[in-house]
Amino acid sequence: MLCSQWGVYNISGTLTYKVGWEQIPANWYRIQGDYNIPDILADILNWGTQHPQLLSIGGNVGSVNSFVGVDWINLTGGVFDAGSILQGNNLACFVLQVLKTGSPTMLSSLYSTVATPLALLNNAIATPMLNLSCPVFGDLKMGGTDLLSALQAKYPGAKKAASAL
Amino acid sequence: MLVGSLIPLKKMVVLTRTSVYGLGIDITTVLAVMSSTVAGNLVSFSLGGQTTKVTSLLGLLGSLLGTPQGIDHTHNLIESDGSSTRDDIYMTGDSWTMNMTKFMEVYNSIDPNGGMTFDDMGQRSANRWNQSVANNPYFYYGPWSGMFGRSGGYLFATRLMSNHSVDHPRGGYLSKLNDQSKSTHSSTSLTRVQPETCYAASGACTTSREP
């Protein structure tokens, strides 16, 4: 299974990677039911409980092994803390709000007129946020500036990519 | 180079993701729109890099500045550091070609008679996160691209790409090779997907390719 889906073949006894040859093998059975945002959230929280670093937003700050995180109160403008972010759909709501907040800036660097792509993206985000009964957020801020600009300024990796999403 | 279409709604990417892999329409729509707006030209996007099949559509649906980059080039937007079998982009400049050394780490960790479990995959995610911190001065773990998107990558691999069975209907069982001997696949509650079905959406019906 691993080999087929990752494009690795046994050619003359040697495992060989063939670019673009990822495929679903014969006799493959798909997942029972769908795998949607609430399912993804439950799994992220499951792994995050086992490995807390997977819930630690942040990055290295100029050298290896210099990871600095941001606490949840600062990330969410006080809406959530380390305890409440793990409850219900809060984590998914926060992530979708981040995407919604960052969309105009992200798109304005790609499009001269953002109205259409922004509307497409906002519509795609709005539906799951409604279905998750997300709270209404204000624009996310940190240290007096918008959250994503603040993260981009703080983390060299985000600055280099011109994106902190 | 395969091209995914956004408009009209019956599109190969969404169809493939939902009916073949079972990815929910909620997350698929977000990902398809992100890919088309960030990496494409609003109607299409390349599953790799730049291609002549996806060009800027001047004056149509908003003018894209420059050339659609493809989803290979979406660092901190869709793509993130710390992948299981790919390098971090600021360490090698290539975060899309599989790194065979990393693949073999995963491959060798799997019991020949068993499969990589859901928890094994979580451990792999944590290990690769730690490795990025230790090796990549530019490592960044953002809320959308990192915590959610990167986790999604690992989760899709274990939940969706496993060969599902009565014992593992929701995935969490990635075997080394394509073991077809399990009698538990014969359950009628599971949907079998034929390769020719997968390719049929593009109009080209083919069976499994052999290199």
What are its keywords?
heterodimer, A: 165 residues, mainly alpha, two-stranded antiparallel sheet, two-stranded antiparallel ribbon, 11% strand, globular, B: 211 residues, 6 strands, disordered N terminus
Number of helical segments with 4 or more residues of chain B: 7
Strand order of the largest sheet of chain B: 1-2
Helix content range of chain B: 25-40%
H/E series of chain A: HEEEHEEHHHEEHH
As a percent range, the share of helical residues of chain A equals: 40-55%
Number of helices, where a helix is a run of at least 4 consecutive DSSP H or I residues of chain A: 7
Based on CA atoms alone, the radius of gyration of chain B comes out at 18 Å
Decide which structural class fits the backbone of chain A. Answer: mainly alpha
**Oligomeric form:** heterodimer
Shape of chain A: globular
Biggest beta sheet attributes of chain A: 2 strands, antiparallel
Categorize the overall geometry of chain B. Answer: globular
First-residue to last-residue Cα separation of chain B: 18 Å
Gyration radius over CA of chain A: 20 Å
Structural class of chain B: mainly alpha
Q: What low-confidence regions of chain B span 5 or more consecutive residues with pLDDT below 50?
A: 1-11, 180-186, 197-207
Q: Helices and strands of chain B, in N-to-C order?
A: EHHEHHEHEHEEH
Strand content of chain A: 5-15%
Query: What gap, in angstroms, lies between the N and C termini of chain A?
Result: 32 Å
Low-confidence stretches of chain A: none
Report on this structure.
The complex is a heterodimer of chains A (165) and B (211). In chain A, 44% of the residues lie in helices and 11% in strands. Chain A is mainly α. The longest helix of chain A is centred in the middle third of the chain and has 19 residues, at 90-108. The two termini of chain A are 32 Å apart. The mean pLDDT of chain A is 92. In chain B, the strands form two sheets. Chain B has a two-stranded antiparallel ribbon with strand order 1-2. The longest helix of chain B is centred in the middle third of the chain and has 18 residues, at 118-135. The two termini of chain B are 18 Å apart. The model of chain B is unreliable at 1-11, 180-186 and 197-207 (pLDDT under 50). Chains A and B meet through helix 1, strand 1, strand 3, helix 2 and strand 4 of A and helix 2, helix 4, helix 5, strand 4 and helix 6 of B.
